[in-house]
Amino acid sequence: MRQLATILSNRLIATATMEMKIEIAPQAVAPGTFFHVKTSELLRRPLSVANVEDNVVTFLYKVIGSGTADLAARRTGDVLDVLGPLGNGFPLEQTGKRVVLVGGGIGVPPLYYTRRLLAARGIETVAILGFDTKTSIFYEDAFRELGETIITTVDGTYGEMGFVTGPLARVDADVLFSCGPEPMLKAVAASHIEERYISIENRMGCGIGACFACVCEAPGGYVKVCSDGPVFRAEEVTL
């Protein structure tokens, strides 16, 4: 669904990391899905859903190029051209199971909305969030309000020093939901957790499965991240 959404706020919350809230038409938005957002560049930018409250959708994005720099310059009241929600998200039917959510950097945002919905269903969760350094951390308090939360930093300036795989190795859980950079996903996909879902971040063209710009290798062929994913069972893709 393409629509023009009003920007309610757009602010810096960590190093080079922005939080944008937009008002959209009332509709169901599943956790792990994304919106394809028009910027000053030719191609839209896929932004994962960090939270939804009524008809307000929150995005978190890192400013790393001209497209995201254009988004960072937008102001309250500006109109944003968005397409979505798109893709397939995390499955919430986890009754009786314990879920560990593992996020790295800008892969953390979709796990917050996912965790909120799991908590509303009474499903126990633990979150492991990895960042480069202390000034890169965001949403720590929001995650802690929902349960046990472990923070790691690569340089050891906050929380546990190292990568998310360290605390993950000692966590007892039945299901894993994860989003982050590919090296991290490769590591967590090989973890001891029995049921593993990973959300893949890829540059996209159309966002609806027509252009084949975001294909990912899979056993026996390829899958489209935008329309088949972005969430897959770990065994469904080859990283």
TrEMBL record:
Cited Pfam families: DHODB_Fe-S_bind
Database matches in SUPFAM superfamilies: Ferredoxin reductase-like, C-terminal NADP-linked domain (SSF52343), Riboflavin synthase domain-like (SSF63380)
GO molecular function: 2 iron, 2 sulfur cluster binding; electron transfer activity; flavin adenine dinucleotide binding; metal ion binding; oxidoreductase activity
Alphabetical list of InterPro entries matching this protein: Cyt_c3_hydrogenase_gsu, Dihydroorotate_DH_ele_sf, Dihydroorotate_DH_Fe-S-bd, Dihydroorotate_DHASE_ETsu, FAD-bd_FR_type, FNR_nucleotide-bd, PyrK_electron_transfer, Riboflavin_synthase-like_b-brl
Domain FAD-binding FR-type: start-end pairs: 1-92
Necessary cofactors: [2Fe-2S] cluster; FAD
Cofactor note: Binds 1 [2Fe-2S] cluster per subunit. Binds 1 FAD per subunit.
Keywords per UniProt: 2Fe-2S, Electron transport, FAD, Flavoprotein, Iron, Iron-sulfur, Metal-binding, Pyrimidine biosynthesis, Transport
Pathway info: Pyrimidine metabolism; UMP biosynthesis via de novo pathway; orotate from (S)-dihydroorotate (NAD(+) route): step 1/1
BP-aspect Gene Ontology terms: 'de novo' UMP biosynthetic process
Keyword Iron-sulfur: yes
Keyword Transport assigned: yes
Residues given in the record as [2Fe-2S] cluster binding sites: 206, 211, 214, 226
Residues binding FAD, per UniProt: 45-48, 67-68
Source organism superkingdom: Bacteria
CDD domains xrefs: DHOD_e_trans
Annotated function: Responsible for channeling the electrons from the oxidation of dihydroorotate from the FMN redox center in the PyrD type B subunit to the ultimate electron acceptor NAD(+).
Subunit description: Heterotetramer of 2 PyrK and 2 PyrD type B subunits.
PANTHER family linked: DIHYDROOROTATE DEHYDROGENASE B (NAD(+)), ELECTRON TRANSFER SUBUNIT, DIHYDROOROTATE DEHYDROGENASE B (NAD(+)), ELECTRON TRANSFER SUBUNIT-RELATED
Family, per entry: Belongs to the PyrK family.
Protein name according to UniProt: Dihydroorotate dehydrogenase B (NAD(+)), electron transfer subunit
Organism of this sequence: Exiguobacterium chiriqhucha RW-2
Gene that encodes it: pyrK
